[in-house]
Design a protein that fits this description.
The chain has about 150 residues and is α+β, with helices and mostly antiparallel strands. About 50% of the residues lie in helices and about 30% in strands.
Amino acid sequence: MKKLLFLIVALIAGLAAGGGTAYAMVKMLGIGGAPKQEAKAEEKEEPAKFVPTGKILVPLVFADGHLAGYASMDVQLQVDEAKADFVNQRMPLLLHAINMRTYRTPMAAGPDGMLPDLEGFRKLVDAAANEAFGPKIVRKIAVTGANPA
């Protein structure tokens, strides 16, 4: 009888400890509420518009600082429709910020250095856009073309 009572008490204690731990993790990590919050955030998004930057002439620099050549990049920025005019007006500031970063960022890839590192360039444009327009103005950056110049 003692063994049976001990097993039942141990089972109840284990369930209570496991349930309490699970409840604490859900509260601490916020598991369970995230999909509802994401759905609400998606509903509130304004319509987006892609704003072209025009052709950007980019120096392709090796990691040691030597110039490999130049590339012409086409970039489009996804912004809210309401902020498209703001972005168009401040486009020269973005182009200046890109120019000030590209000459010291190694973006040359390939054996001869004539292949641009597109992911590195996209991150560079993202940092320049945050400087020129402020944070959370540009949603996404699309590099639509890269040609040797």
